[in-house]
Amino acid sequence: MNTTNAEGFFQKLYNQIYDYLTDADMWVTVGMVLAKILAIIVASRIVVSLLHATVNRIFHHRHGGGKLQLDQRRVDTMRVLVNNIIQYTIYFLAILMILQLIGIDLRPVLVSAGVLGLAVGFGAQSLVRDIITGFFIIFEDQFAVGDVVTINNMTGTVQEIGLRITRVRSWTGEVFIFPNGTITQVTNFSLQNTLAVVDVSVAYEENLGQVEEVLKEVLAKAQAELTDIVAEPQILGVQALGPSEVVMRVTAECKPNTHHGVNRNLRAMIRTEFTKRGIQIPYPKIVAMSGKAQGQA
Question: Which residues form a coiled coil (predicted)?
Fold first, then answer.
């Protein structure tokens, strides 16, 4: 009896499967659904490709424009970021459409996703703030990799800019990691030309006219040899009168963030030329007088 019932059950199951697989209308429906899914996939790929081409063209024209000068790193970073956002959005919509074709009700899914997103939003507000701030740092060209910046009173060279964090390496080797949401103040030293300022001390006994002529020769030589100098150096004149020296100031406009090196080179060139010309640079002197000499005085 049990064997007969089992055979009847499997026979009935076999007949149902056979009828289902041999149903022409079912296969037509499946074929239509598969065709629509394939069309959605192809269409999404085409839309993504067209939007990528448009974005690439826009950022190609954006290169070198705007208030802040853009370099290739900034353009590439922004282009990749926008392309990724477009790609993820289009593919997400395509997945939703495919699920709807399969017969999955999207309303409970969307409601659940909304509740989950709301919960994540409340629990990860700092993360959302970091991502939004990082996007605007990149989009507004505030700074780029390789720029020398001061962020929250920490100065260094930018190593990495992400949507969540920014890495800055100081000149002594420390690496500072800033969550983008905590960046409240940025000073960028790599956007505009900088000014090298050198104060030159000479003795009171020196002829200031001769000193200025020597400085003019040195600055002309420096402008020809130092490629970081972008404009004619200037002699501003007497800057201060010290206890034992006259301080004269010279300036030179340099490429962004190169003034430290120009300062060092100018000091070395001025010191060498002064030595050749016999111009004295004052330094502390100690005069010792014996008691006999004091008595004679």
Answer: none
Q: Are 144 and 66 in contact (CB under 8 A)?
A: no
| 196 neighbors 259 (Cβ within 8 angstroms) | yes
- 271-292 pLDDT, tens digit per residue, is 999 989 888 888 766 666 766 5
* CATH architecture assigned to 194-277: 2-Layer Sandwich (3.30)
For the chain, what are the domain ranges? 2-104, 142-188, 194-277
CATH of domain 142-188: 2.30.30.60
User: What's the CA gap between 199 and 247, in Å, rounded?
Assistant: 6
Q: Is-contact 170 145, C-beta < 8 A?
A: no
Residue of 66, 62, 67, 89 whose CA lies nearest to 78: 62
What is the CATH number that goes with domain 2-104?
1.10.287.1260
Query: Tokens 């060139």 — which residue?
Result: 269
235, with CB counted inside 10 A (0-12, 13-18, 19+), is middle
